[in-house]
Write a structure and sequence with these properties.
The protein is mostly helical. It contains 3 helices and no strands. It is elongated, with a radius of gyration of 17 Å. Bound molecules: zinc ion.
């Protein structure tokens, strides 16, 4: 289902949005606090610049916001659909706890999603010399 060429492939596998082969992050583990979702300046495989301009990844905040809202709405829907009875304060603590635990993952996902908005897939054979 997720083949090279789809943006979801790049996002799920943390691969370069341009060639879908090179690594996007210096560490594939979003919970590696030493690197904390640091991405390469250029793709290690196709040499495509991954920082299009200074402050490029500030825009990932919009994606992060959307992910957080989705997270909260999912918890609220699950609470009502499953009919879970819980104090409001406890529910907020539960949702916030999971949100805090998942923040490194959401950070990584929002950063690579943002990159995928602007970088488009081209198979490696065509973009060997790709330089923006
Ligand atoms: Zn690449």
């Amino acid at each position: 289902m997720l083949k090279k060429g789809s943006k979801l492939y790049s996002i799920i596998h943390f691969k370069c949005p341009h060639c879908h082969e090179g690594e996007f992050f210096k560490s594939r583990n979003p919970y590696d606090f030493k690197h904390l979702s640091r991405s390469y300046e250029k793709c290690t495989k196709c040499n495509r610049r991954l920082y299009l301009e200074p402050g490029f990844y500030y825009g990932a905040m919009y994606v992060s916001y959307a992910l957080s809202v989705t997270h909260i709405v999912t918890f609220i829907l699950a609470k009502y659909i499953l009919g879970i009875k819980m104090e409001f304060v406890n529910f907020i603590i539960l949702v916030a706890s999971f949100l805090i635990l998942l923040t490194p993952l959401y950070y990584a996902l929002s950063k690579i999603t943002w990159a995928n908005f602007f970088l488009h897939y081209k198979p490696t054979t065509e973009n060997e010399k790709s330089e923006p």
